[in-house]
Design brief:
alpha/beta, Rossmann fold, 2 domains, binds adenosine-5'-diphosphate
């Protein structure tokens, strides 16, 4: 099966979020299942050409790609995903991608990604490589299914190519003014109120992707159901509802080499499920280096997050007095909205014996918190998949999470399962998006922590879980097969 995976970000080349992790890891796992896979992304000026050994693709040379009526010169650079033999092609067009960042608020943001979408298709043509499936990810790639079926349908090499549209966060939809239609040379008759390209009066890339691809996926099963509702659908629920039969969720995997407590180079003390001594030592190390009181009898609760409303920081703010009054210690890492940053700065200063906050982005510290904390708090309002709760489970850092999206699919509440007669729980979770539900659940976790035997069982349950990409890649292959069957029909 030949698969072209297209993404505006791919780790480790360029990353703003979880999408890059998926685009960097999934292709390697797909290759291991036997897929013939090629990855496509823009060549941003921030990508280090020598470090990643990019080389010029002479077989293609200069390729003019028309956007807004102007042919822009495009060149292709090529490399492989680090640690693999997966080919990756970089669409090099400095006019659009030398901007210092991946996404911009520039007037020609639509043109940047129109060019990317068209150039991917034209690269496939020049490589004479006809994919069975094009796997598109989020709005920056969402015009490809339509372009293949419309603008490039003259080319028989795409006659059987199916498309799959993956949604990593429904909140980002690619909305642009009416001129975008002509810049992309899309048929104007596709744009009318309620039509396939129209959303709230704007041209919507994601809507086109949803309606013109064979299969739609998102990054957890629960999120796939949630985005069909007005509460979580960000206005796209009705459009998605029209494709409900073709929509499903596949949980992201995690990088199990990067996030492994037995080998994690960021941890002063390694540990495993069989020998947790290292975790206790990491906790001591954390407490000592943050100036928190050295207390082994109370839990250390970690937070690592973008500090934004999506991640449930309003709930934390609402119950902060309650939370800080509990017999626990806190370590908080994150950046984001100023009001939340200020809140945690203030807490760290006024309660310096029990709370420590680092406002910034720090990967070393993120690993250290996972390696040393007892619990991890993630009360998201919505969470398409979420990674940190999976890292936490793997590190025996028991997650406390709101039951939404990927959190609902990965964290199993200890008491809920216990009441059903089974000891499989690996965390604590709550439904209501209220400060009260959050603080009661944290209290429940703190109470449970006092029973060391039970706690060890909860930790062990989480540490045994398999979050590698292998299982998810197999599910994607099934989706690709479904997409191909639909296209051929
Ligand atoms: P999202 O992509 O919505 O931000 P995820 O849980 O899917 O949420 O992924 C967030 C990733 O970014 C995790 O790997 C997490 O450890 C990391 N991260 C978030 N904030 C920080 C920070 N301040 N410092 C270090 N790592 C962070």
């Amino acid at each position: 099966m030949k698969v072209a995976l297209v993404s505006s970000e791919v780790a480790p080349f360029a990353k703003t979020g979880g999408l890059a992790d998926v685009a960097g890891a999934l292709p390697k796992a797909l290759k291991q299942t036997g897929c013939d896979i090629k990855v496509f992304m823009p060549k941003y000026s921030t990508i280090d050409e020598s470090k990643f050994e990019l080389h010029y693709e002479y077989s293609i040379g200069e390729m003019p790609v028309r956007v807004g009526g102007i042919p822009r010169p495009v060149h292709i650079q090529q490399s492989t995903l680090p640690g693999s033999t997966v080919d990756i092609y970089f669409i090099d067009c400095p006019h659009f991608f030398d901007r210092g960042k991946i996404y911009t608020a520039d007037w020609d943001e639509d043109e940047r990604f129109i060019l990317f979408n068209k150039a991917v298709i034209e690269t496939l043509q020049r490589l004479q490589w006809s994919p069975d499936v094009v796997h598109c990810n989020d709005w920056p790639t969402a015009l490809i299914p339509l372009l293949l079926k419309d603008n490039y349908n003259w080319d028989s090499m795409f006659g059987k190519t199916a498309s799959i549209m993956s949604i990593h966060n429904i909140g980002y939809q690619g909305l642009f003014p009416l001129e975008t239609l002509s810049r992309a040379e899309l048929r104007p008759e596709l744009f009318y109120p309620g039509g396939p390209l129209e959303f709230n009066g704007a041209v919507c890339f994601l809507k086109a992707g949803i309606l013109f691809s064979e299969i739609i996926s998102t990054v957890s099963e629960t999120y796939a159901k949630e985005i069909l509702t007005p509460e979580y659908g960000a206005g796209m629920d009705a459009v998605l509802g029209s494709r409900e039969a073709d929509l499903s969720g596949v949980l992201n995997g995690i990088d199990v080499d990067e996030w492994n407590p037995q080998t994690d180079k960021h941890l002063p003390h390694k540990y495993s499920m069989k020998n947790m001594e290292g975790k206790n030592k990491n906790k001591e190390y954390l407490l000592e280096h943050t100036g928190l009181q050295s207390r082994n009898d109370v839990p250390l609760i970690g937070i690592i997050s973008r500090m934004v409303a999506q991640k449930g920081f309003d709930l934390i703010a609402e119950s902060v007095h309650e939370l800080m009054g509990m017999d626990a210690q806190w370590i908080i890492l994150g950046t984001g909205e100023e009001r939340f940053e200020n809140l945690f700065r203030a807490i760290g200063q006024s309660l310096s014996h029990k709370a420590w906050a680092y406002i910034g982005f720090n990967n070393d510290l993120a690993h250290l918190i996972e390696g040393g904390a007892d619990m991890f708090l993630m009360p998201s309002l919505y969470e398409p998949c979420g990674l940190n709760q999976m890292y936490s489970l793997r590190y025996g850092t028991v997650p406390i999470a709101r039951k939404t999206g990927g959190l609902a699919d990965t964290v199993q509440d200890w008491h809920e399962y216990l009441s059903q007669g089974s000891e499989v729980g690996d965390g604590f979770s709550f439904n209501d998006a209220t400060g009260f539900a959050l603080s009661s659940t944290v209290r429940r976790a703190i109470e449970t922590f006092k029973d060391k035997k039970v706690w060890q069982k909860i930790q062990a349950n989480g540490m045994q879980r398999d979050f590698s990409w292998t299982a998810s890649a197999k599910k994607y292959v099934t989706l690709y097969e479904n997409a191909m069957a639909k296209r051929h029909a």
